[in-house]
């Protein structure tokens, strides 16, 4: 497939159009007592606002689809939308506001720290939280909360799937490094990816690889020149990128300018999906960037749910279809199906129903693991190829990994250990 794009237009359309349209509906949510009110708490501004707005857009599309078919238990869904600004303090503030108004169901949780802030309010408010983005292992291990469900595949699953594909696509790249944000997300993902990478090369090719210590940078950051200089001075050929959002775009622009594209044979994004190519534009490497996502929105064999999601997005937006739509869309479907199965809006009954809910998402079958509330879905690993002249991109190869094949044993309440 060939995708044309403009980085500026993508950011403007996703950050502007979706957020403004969403916030405009919040007043009605409080005014109507005959609706099922669901809070959507995402970062809608700042460095990762693109990702938050895309997940919110997916939730809105699912809610509109459900409402057109009669709603849930004869109630129409109304979204109460708040911007957590990627801040734990702000997430706690807006969660207290929405939960204090009587709302019992929350979608959100793009980042771990804001997710933890919301988790701390669930029991006292008898609320259920579907975390649609956060990957850090603690959420379903030592920090497990019985009122929270992680819809996104966790860091171990995602990084293991990405690492499994590298020996297949890059058998001769055996010297690796990484650049990471200096936070738990960055350090955990780097450790998980490189551990799985060593195992994958040894298992599939009987090769031992060299891994340089990760280079940690502040989050957010605007200047990566010192880090790039260190990478240029090393002997690595493959680079794992745990930086996300606009930090990723800034790093790659500076990396191209300083010649890193000529040195590195393989760039591996930590799982931004299609959005990373749309955002990079002309700064996308010609044929060396890999990423992964739970949903690949340009799959030629897409199921009916996925095709409808693509149609709904394309009918209202000129921006390219974003793989992050899946997270909000699937979260809303999971909650609606659980409420229907429970035949009740009682949070305890819905929580029990979520533990056994199974349905067809845009990415195929989806379910939660009962023991630790970890979502299980397939993971798509794919490589981008830059079109001549920087006018777009295509995906020549997709490797699909079953979630069941890379999930770790459940241990809710206990610290995760490799």
Brief summary:
With about 425 residues, this protein is of the alpha/beta class.
Question: How would you sum up this structure, described in words?
Answer:
This protein is α/β, with parallel strands linked by helices. The protein has 2 domains: 3-153 and 302-376, Rossmann fold; 156-298 and 378-406, Rossmann fold (3-Layer(aba) Sandwich). Helix content is 43%, strand content 20%. It has 16 helices and 17 strands. The strands form 3 sheets. Strands 1, 7, 8, 9, 10, 11, 12, 16 and 17 form a 9-stranded mixed sheet that branches. Strands 3-2-4-5-6 form a 5-stranded parallel sheet, with helices on both faces. The protein has a 3-stranded antiparallel sheet with strand order 13-14-15, covered by helices on one side. Helix 1 (7-23) crosses helix 3, helix 7 (155-169) packs across helix 8 and helix 14 (325-342) packs across helix 15. It is globular and about 60 Å long. The two termini are 38 Å apart. Residues 1-32 have low confidence and may be disordered.
Described by strand count, sense and barrel closure, the largest sheet is: 9 strands, mixed
Please give the alpha-carbon distance between the first and last residues. 38 Å
Number of domains: 2
- Please state roughly what percent of the residues sit in beta strands, choosing from under 5%, 5-15%, 15-25%, 25-35%, 35-45% or over 45%: 15-25%
Radius of gyration: 20 Å
Total beta strands: 17
């Amino acid at each position: 497939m060939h995708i044309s794009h403009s980085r500026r237009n993508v950011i403007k359309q996703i950050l502007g159009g979706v957020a403004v349209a969403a916030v405009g509906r919040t007043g009605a949510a409080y005014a109507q007592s005959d609706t099922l009110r669901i809070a959507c708490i995402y970062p809608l501004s700042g460095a990762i606002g693109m990702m938050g707005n895309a997940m919110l857009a997916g939730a809105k599309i699912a809610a509109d689809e459900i409402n057109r078919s009669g709603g849930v238990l004869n109630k129409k869904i109304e979204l109460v939308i708040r911007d957590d600004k990627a801040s734990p303090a702000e997430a706690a503030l807006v969660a207290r506001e929405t939960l204090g108004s009587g709302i019992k169901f929350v979608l959100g949780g793009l980042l771990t720290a804001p997710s933890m802030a919301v988790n701390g309010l669930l029991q006292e408010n008898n609320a259920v939280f579907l975390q649609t983005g956060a990957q850090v292992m603690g959420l379903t291990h030592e920090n497990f909360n019985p009122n929270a469900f992680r819809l996104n595949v966790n860091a171990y699953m995602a990084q293991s799937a990405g690492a499994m594909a590298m020996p297949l696509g890059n058998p001769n790249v055996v010297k690796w490094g990484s650049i990471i944000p200096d936070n738990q997300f960055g350090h955990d993902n780097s450790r998980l990816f490189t551990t799985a990478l060593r195992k994958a090369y040894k298992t599939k090719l009987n090769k031992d690889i060299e891994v340089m210590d990760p280079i940690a940078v502040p989050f957010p950051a605007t200047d990566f020149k010192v880090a790039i200089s260190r990478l240029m001075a090393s002997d690595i050929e493959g680079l794992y990128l745990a930086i996300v959002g606009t930090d990723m775009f800034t790093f790659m622009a500076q990396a191209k300018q300083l010649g890193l594209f000529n040195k590195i044979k393989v760039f591996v994004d930590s799982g931004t999906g299609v959005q990373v190519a749309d955002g990079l534009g002309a700064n996308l490497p010609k044929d060396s960037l890999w990423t992964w996502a739970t949903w690949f929105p340009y799959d030629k064999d897409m199921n009916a749910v996925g095709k409808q999601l693509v149609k709904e997005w394309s009918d209202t937006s000129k921006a390219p279809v974003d793989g992050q739509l899946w997270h909000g869309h699937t979260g809303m479907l999971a909650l609606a199906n659980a409420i229907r199965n429970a035949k009740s809006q009682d949070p305890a009954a819905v929580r029990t129903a979520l533990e056994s809910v199974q349905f067809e998402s845009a990415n195929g079958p989806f379910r939660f693991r009962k023991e630790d509330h970890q979502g299980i879905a397939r993971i798509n690993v794919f490589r981008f190829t830059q079109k001549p002249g920087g006018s777009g991109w295509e995906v020549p190869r997709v490797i699909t990994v079953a979630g069941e094949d890379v999930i770790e044993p459940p241990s809710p309440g206990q610290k995760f250990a490799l």
